[in-house]
């Protein structure tokens, strides 16, 4: 349940454009969660440096501990932790366990696929929020692969009772998964199939941005597992040679580009200069595409002497609009763009984002309702939303217990008097120190 705890966003009195403010963000959520699973599936002990230590990652770690994997955590540099995990070459130590994935969508999908290819029997519980999110396409794929997956309450949703396929029948060499609702289903299957040690193919149906799947494949390669992506009569197929095995290593986790984007958007709305430590042009994460959107809006994207990416907002925050952008490959930034689009000089249309209705909340509705409360008109379609320019008015932002709603609409408040973010503590899911970090950046800019 959401409470009436709220964060009052304060408009800065004056911004010094001669100052380059610097933000430090946590390690990438997407990379941390993939690295945790890959390390658990590898043969030997891996050290993951700079991991995100949010609620999602902690649920993942607790699940791995419950499943019997040796895990050690130590404070690392910056805001992250260094985590050591010993894997057993695809084997799960405890053959029977009950785990709780909380609201962590990545952990939920990835762990379910891993358990489905085991020789054990498991119960997977989740938060009420996660129970509402789709699982059916992954469940179907795993059942077709020979796993026993029982939906304890409602078909296609958590909680699940899983009997691993290795203990039931021969696992096939060909798999099919639909990604219309989430590319995480494919990423989960890719990592899990890599543990089988045999030639195999995954056929993909449905349409969804594959940037996070590309990230998964790159990280698998770092851990010693190559997968070939090819096109077979118009259908995407991922192919395993059967010769590779996951190997332990020391792995550096990138800064979270999804989190960094809020500080670049802050530069855009305030006409300020902001850099994010450790963000560079060679990042694996698809959300780097958001930098191109900011450039299209009149911002300047450049490198600092240290190689970090910095954004200089248009003078006085006068942003350019009048464009359409397909955000299917970086849909986490749809809320960010929606929050700053009212300050553009023409409407901004975002397409390819229908699937965000099925995330932590209905994010399309969160965009439309909160912008309406701010006095901004939107036009919503099944897979797109257009944000019209205007002058926002103060209001309370209903975050719907969604961290990205809270983090995004705080940006609108820095040019709008009287904006309050309800339930700001929901940011603990990925970035507990978000508002403190924002205030630190603003303090630099106001000097």
Describe this structure in words.
The protein is an alpha/beta fold and 447 residues long. It has helices at 29-41, 55-66, 105-116, 128-131, 136-144, 184-193, 211-222, 257-270, 290-296, 334-340, 363-373, 403-413, 434-445; strands at residues 6-8, 20-23, 43-51, 71-75, 81-88, 96-100, 121-125, 148-151, 160-163, 174-178, 200-205, 228-232, 235-240, 250-252, 273-276, 300-303, 309-312, 323-326, 348-351, 378-380, 384-387, 395-397, 419-422. It contains 13 helices and 23 strands. It has a 4-stranded mixed beta sheet. Strands 4-5-3-14 form a 4-stranded mixed beta sheet, with helices on one face. Strands 6-7-9-8 form a 4-stranded mixed beta sheet. Helix 10 (334-340) links the parallel strand 18 and strand 19 (348-351). The chain is globular, with a radius of gyration of 22 Å. The two termini are 39 Å apart. The mean pLDDT is 94.
Distance between the termini: 39 Å
The Cα radius of gyration reads 22 Å
Order of strands, widest sheet: 2-15-17-16
Q: Approximately how much helix is present in the residues?
A: 25-40%
Identify low-pLDDT runs.
none
Give the overall pLDDT as a whole number.
94
Largest sheet, if any? 4 strands, mixed
Task: Assign the structural class, choosing from mainly alpha, mainly beta, alpha/beta, alpha+beta, or little secondary structure.
Answer: alpha/beta
Count of runs of 4 or more consecutive helical residues: 13
Report the count of strand segments.
23
The percentage of residues in β strands lies in 15-25%
Shape descriptor: globular
């Amino acid at each position: 349940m959401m409470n009436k705890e709220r964060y009052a966003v304060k408009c800065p009195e004056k911004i010094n454009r001669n100052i380059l403010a610097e933000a430090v963000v946590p390690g990438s959520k997407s990379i941390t969660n993939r690295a945790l699973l890959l390390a658990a599936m590898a043969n030997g002990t891996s050290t993951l440096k700079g991991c995100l230590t949010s609620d999602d990652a902690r649920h993942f770690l607790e699940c791995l501990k419950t499943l019997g994997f040796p895990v050690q955590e130590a404070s690392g540099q910056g805001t992250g932790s260094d985590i050591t995990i010993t894997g057993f070459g695809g084997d799960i130590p405890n053959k029977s366990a009950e785990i709780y994935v909380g609201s962590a969508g990545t952990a939920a999908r990835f762990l379910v696929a891993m358990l489905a290819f085991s020789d054990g029997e498991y119960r997977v519980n989740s938060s009420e929020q996660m129970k509402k999110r789709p699982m059916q396409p992954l469940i179907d794929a795993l059942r077709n692969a020979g796993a026993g997956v029982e939906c304890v309450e409602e078909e296609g949703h958590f909680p699940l009772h899983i009997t691993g396929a290795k203990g039931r029948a021969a696992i096939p060499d060909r798999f099919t998964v639909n990604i219309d609702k989430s590319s995480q289903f494919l990423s989960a299957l890719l990592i899990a199939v890599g543990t089988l040690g045999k030639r195999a193919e995954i056929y993909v149906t449905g349409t969804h941005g594959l940037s996070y799947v590309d990230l998964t494949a790159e990280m698998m390669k770092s851990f010693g597992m190559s997968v070939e992506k090819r096109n077979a009569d118009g259908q995407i197929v991922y192919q395993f040679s059967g010769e590779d095995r996951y190997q332990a290593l020391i792995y550096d986790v990138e800064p979270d580009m999804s989190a960094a984007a809020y500080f670049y958007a802050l530069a855009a709305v305030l006409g300020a200069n902001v850099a994010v430590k450790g963000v560079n042009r060679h990042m694996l994460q698809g959300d780097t595409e958001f930098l191109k959107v900011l450039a299209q809006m009149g911002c300047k994207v450049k490198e600092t002497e240290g190689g970090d990416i910095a954004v200089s907002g248009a003078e006085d925050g006068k942003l350019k609009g009048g464009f359409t952008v397909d955000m299917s490959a970086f849909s986490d930034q749809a809320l960010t763009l929606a929050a700053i689009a009212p300050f553009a000089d023409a409407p901004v249309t975002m397409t390819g984002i229908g699937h965000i209705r099925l995330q932590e909340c209905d994010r399309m509705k969160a965009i439309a309702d909160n912008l309406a409360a701010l006095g901004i008109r939107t036009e919503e379609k099944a897979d797109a939303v257009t944000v019209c320019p205007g002058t926002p008015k103060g209001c309370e932002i209903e975050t719907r217990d969604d961290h990205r709603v809270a983090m995004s609409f705080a940006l609108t408040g820095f040019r709008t008097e009287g904006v309050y973010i309800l339930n700001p503590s929901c940011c603990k899911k990925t970035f507990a120190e978000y508002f403190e970090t924002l205030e630190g950046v603003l303090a630099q800019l106001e000097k």
